[in-house]
Amino acid sequence: MPTVLKIDGFRFFFFSDEHNPVHIHVEKGDGYMRVELETLKVTNKQKFTKNDEKKIMSIIKEHHEKLIGAWNEYFNQ
Known about the structure:
Strand content: 25-35%
Number of strands: 5
Shape: globular
Helix content: 25-40%
Number of helices: 2
Structural class: alpha+beta
Radius of gyration: 11 Å
């Protein structure tokens, strides 16, 4: 499960057997979130506060190209 970023205790990663749409998983402690990278739609969220969610989305927007690039490189797209 490749980790793409670690920022402020959040780990941004994907699994090695992923599927489209392009998305990223985020975890910190007991919190978990899944975000589709093309639409920035949150498709799963557990135990993160609204502040955590805002911080995560800010990080995703700031590193959007890197996250998509890592997906494309790993899955040869």
